[in-house]
Design goal:
Blueprint: H1 4-14, H2 22-29, H3 33-47, E1 55-57, E2 61-63, H4 69-82, H5 90-102, H6 110-117, H7 121-139, E3 144-146, E4 150-152, H8 157-170, H9 175-184, H10 190-207, H11 213-231, H12 251-258, H13 264-275, H14 278-284, H15 289-305, H16 314-332, H17 345-348, H18 350-356, H19 359-367, H20 373-387, H21 404-413
Helix pairs in contact: 5-7, 8-11, 10-11, 10-12, 15-16, 15-19, 16-20, 16-21, 18-20
């Protein structure tokens, strides 16, 4: 199987009927002559199995013979079928490695991964160091490293599923590649996924949850991941399951859709996962009228700093109150959203980011919770929208699971 660059070199030579110079190829693909020679050598090693080759014309360059062109095109089509899950960026390589580690009980060697995705062991070692930092920074998990055997994630099944849930929620920018990884490991059957998603929409309405479509997409993917884990013999441990969570959930229908029998401890585990979702936390809570007063004090401070030159629309004020209510509820339950907004809010809106800082001490004094940078960015974004609501052109952001007011605001004003 060819790497992506090797495949592109072949396509480039196929569209040229004359010899292509070495300088032209090196310039086009931004590689050295040595790297180009190695790529051509590796390509020819595979071609020779079928009696084909890329010719090297001394002092001129490279050429694909006319008689080999048809056969090579067929090889490329076959290669595309097998290369569908090949990572093309470092972030995709990180995901590939994580999925490989999470779906393997034993150690995985650098050589094995390198042979699968066609990168050097040096590059891959750097990628594994990033995986190591990711696991340590987000989950306090130490990657198990053996000089003779390789790498593995030696933790309980419930911890592995926590990692998978985090990947689903925090890698939206790699959504298409995530789906490829799900397919590769048998964790996404599209007909079942759409049926589960439809069922979850109905369940959320019947249960009175205020959810976004992304909430339910994440949950549907988690359910498919958990089912795939069970089918591959990975089950959560009894001692790691909270037995006291009770939520009406359509297990029977999902069992029918996916043709499985759901073990009781697995049901309890999924209910525990749902109980930590922001939309579930919000459903349990009552409206805290202290939030209304707190937001009014905050907005008065903002108006004072702006010399009272702005009057807020009441609907916008109500939406801000709703967002702050949800934010505080989630922070008090330990739910900290770590998604990254796709623009630098602090850099682009320094004045409004500084105004957002007024909210932190008010929340700290009243509720004893700390706002993170993410919350300050969301508050900044809402302030920008409230003050410049008439601006036609707005940026679309990656928002948190509990920032539905932001979504409603965008829908109304864009």
């Amino acid at each position: 199987m060819f790497s992506r660059r090797q495949e592109q070199i072949i396509y480039y030579l196929l569209k040229e009927v004359h010899v292509v110079s070495t300088v032209t190829l090196c310039t086009f693909f931004s590689v050295s002559e040595r790297t180009l020679r190695k790529d051509i050598h590796d390509i020819n090693l595979q071609f020779k199995q079928s009696g084909m080759e890329i010719l090297h014309i001394r002092s001129k360059g490279y050429l694909i013979p006319e008689q080999d062109r048809g056969k090579i095109k067929k090889v490329l089509i076959d290669n595309e079928k097998y290369a569908i899950d090949q990572p093309e960026t470092q972030e995709e390589r990180i995901l590939y490695i994580l999925f490989a580690l999470l779906w393997e009980r034993e150690y995985i060697s650098l050589e094995k991964i390198a042979s699968e995705i066609y990168v050097s062991k040096t590059t891959l070692y750097t990628d594994f160091q990033r995986v190591k930092r990711y696991l340590k920074g987000n989950f306090e998990i130490v990657l198990d490293i053996s000089k003779t055997k390789g790498f593995r994630i030696n933790v309980s099944e419930s911890h592995k599923r926590e990692i998978l849930s985090h990947i689903i929620s925090n890698h939206g920018q790699r959504y298409k590649y995530l789906l490829k990884m799900f397919h590769k490991h048998g964790a996404l059957i599209e007909d079942e996924y759409h049926e589960i998603l439809r069922l979850l929409h109905q369940w959320s309405v019947d249960s009175g949850y205020t959810t976004t479509n992304m909430d339910l997409i994440h949950l549907a993917l988690e359910i498919q991941i958990f089912i795939a884990r069970m089918k591959n013999g990975f089950f959560v441990e009894q001692e790691n399951v909270n037995q006291n969570v009770s939520i009406p959930f359509p297990f029977v229908q999902i069992e029918e859709i996916c043709d499985i029998s759901w073990p009781e401890k697995e049901k309890k585990y999924l209910l525990e996962v749902i109980s930590n979702k922001s939309f579930f936390i919000a459903k349990k809570a009552y409206y805290d009228f202290r939030v209304s007063d707190l937001v009014e004090v905050f907005l008065h401070k903002v108006q004072t700093q702006l010399n009272h030159e702005i009057q807020f629309i009441q609907d916008d004020v109500n939406e801000l109150k709703e967002y702050v209510q949800m934010m505080i509820l989630c922070l008090r339950h330990g739910v900290h959203d770590k998604k990254i907004i796709d623009i630098n809010i602090e850099k682009e809106y320094p004045l409004f980011y500084s105004l957002a800082q007024y909210l932190g001490p008010l929340v700290k004094e009243e509720y004893n919770v700390e706002l993170t940078q993410f919350e300050y960015e969301q508050i900044t974004f809402l302030l920008v929208g409230m003050i410049y609501y008439s601006v036609k052109e707005k940026r679309v952001l990656l928002v948190s699971d509990y920032s539905q007011p932001v979504i409603f605001y965008l829908i109304r004003h864009i």
